[in-house]
Amino acid sequence: MQLFHAAASPFVRKVMVVLHETAQLAEVACVPATVSPVGQEGAAHAHNPLGKIPVLTRPDGPALYDSRVICRYLGERAGGALYPAPRIWEVLTLEALADGMMDAAISITYEGRLRPEGGRSQDWIAGQWGKIDRALDALEEGWMSHLAGPLDIGQIAVGCALGYLDFRHDTKDWRQGHGALARWFERFEQRASMRESRPSA
Description:
Elements: E1 2-5, H1 10-21, E2 29-32, E3 55-58, E4 61-64, H2 67-77, H3 88-114, H4 122-142, H5 144-147, H6 153-168, H7 179-188, H8 192-196
Parallel strand pairs: 1-2
Antiparallel strand pairs: 1-3, 3-4
Helix pairs in contact: 1-2, 1-6, 3-4, 3-6
């Protein structure tokens, strides 16, 4: 299998953490792929018409995208422990919440990098931060007992979302007012899968 990826992407990191946690890392070759919301061609486009990463190609079927599909495939391939049936809807909802945080944070990154300074929308940026702030409050107020439970894809997604905030938006102190979540993340990011997938550039 091949994974088209960029280490800075939190969605790619989510897949990498799943590969580590399910002992499938050796079965996947990572292929660097640079993507942009304004780009029209690249390695990812050949396998995903949306031109987004991650993309997982397989010898026995069509390419898989996006990260939720890839992680579900890898999780099932490893026995399904990351998607426990008794609480599957909670797990998938938590993953969706974390993915939404990543989407908003990446949108802020793109707004700052791809638009000229005079063309950036502060209202757009504020709206994206509003989504992130509400998600952080929801995690702090309603999800801490779940986060403290057995490892699942929801926890992995939250860890990658918080890691991306530290990586690209470290001036935004998400820990302020979210002490329980910050303490959880301090422990979670010490997992070998998180340490080994931490982006450096």
